[in-house]
Amino acid sequence: MSTRGERAAADRAAEHQHLLDALLVEREGLLTVLDRVLALRGTARLLRDAAGADAGFVADTDGGGGVIRWLAGTRTDSLQDLIVPVGQGVGGRVMALGRPVRVSDYVTAPSITHQFDGVVSREALSAMLAVPILRERAGRQQTVAVAYAALRGPGEFGDDAVRAVQGVAADAAVALALAERAEAGRATAVAAERQRMQASLHDSVGAMLFSIGAQVRDLRTTLPDNPVLRTRLGRLESDVSAAALALRESLLALSESSPERALPIELAEHCRSFQARTGVAARLVQLGEVRPLDAERTTLLVSAVREGLLNVEKHAGASTVVVSLGEVESGVQVAVADDGAPAEPAGADGVPGTGLGVRMLVERAARLGGRVSLVHDEDGGTTLRMLLPAPGRE
To answer: Is 281 in the same domain as 264?
Structure first.
């Protein structure tokens, strides 16, 4: 490659790295402030304004119905925290159908049930439009909230208003996705911290209590006969045993983690350890929900990340490493991407010609119907990727 070409490649690599860092910083900033309440709090006002309506409100759903939580333009509190079962009223019909529903006059509309005529009349609402806020979960679209717009007095919602409200609902769905990702990230961070606390307490306080107990027992057997002292030492030994039991119970509580958190917690801990050990920035990016996996697949995905980080540490001379985890159509994928020099040339199949660790990963993944690749970017950097099919898809 010419000097000019090398310079251009270096510039492209720097630009890619800058963009990646900027995106990750922006993502991390969003995840620190977003939650479900913040994601939906301003949506009611946006719905009212987008549809040119007198009122807008949002119902949060949990699969068995919805509760109207956020309102804009209402005159009373009659709609606040109103429970809306599936199939009832305009919002319940949206939950049942998964599509927009509109009526020109709520209290006389034949297409809906009328359990809520009283509260709607107290707000003097007439025409009403509701659309689903949709999120993809488990491979299908689910209604996670309902967006409403309503008029007072004569009027109706046309197709333009429906499209405008659907646009606000789509934006709200994106905000909810970020909020859920933030919650997952916070839960993973908390669980990882609990794991570190567990190890620290076991190694420090646990060891100290064991030592105290052993010394007390030695004193009881070696001191001259002294009933009073023996009694006091016996009480001290009982206190130490009780403290040790309480510590074990606390350690068990700290170690509790739901199965779906086990994999991201483990990967986050490897990134943290790698960064502390090498000084190279390492981030875990979780690309959506990952359903719980069996122990064999979880262990193999963790092994792939550990091998990727080890290769970066030994060969790459990288300044940044990004570990990603996410579900793809056919299974679960992890990737370890760095911006350093390639560790070794890859073969035609994307697997390096040498490197026992990666070759063992290839063999283990193949037994489960998965695959491993090692790709060297022409602009610099290497990505080790493992894809495993979900159980039952081998």
So the answer is: yes
Does residue 13 sit within a domain? Answer: no
φ/ψ (deg, to 5) at 220: -65, -30
Rounded Cα–Cα distance for residues 62 and 336 (Å): 36
Residue 390 buriedness (CB in 10 A; 0-12 / 13-18 / 19+): middle
| CB-count exposure of residue 19 (10 Å: 0-12, 13-18, 19+) | exposed
Q: What is the per-residue pLDDT across 103-145, written as a single tens digit (0 to 9) for each?
A: 999 999 999 999 999 999 999 999 999 999 988 766 678 898 9
Q: Which of 232, 255, 278 is the last residue of a domain?
A: 255
Which is more confidently placed, 138 or 301? Answer: 301
pTM: 0.45
Whether 104 and 215 share a structural domain: no
Domain range enclosing 200? 192-255
* The total number of structural domains that make up the chain: 3
Whether residues 175 and 41 share a domain: the answer is yes
Does some domain include residue 15?
Answer: no
Supply the DSSP symbol for 389: E
Q: How far apart are CA 106 and CA 208, in angstroms?
A: 71
The contacts of residue 307 (CB under 8 Å, 6+ apart) are 357, 358, 361, 384
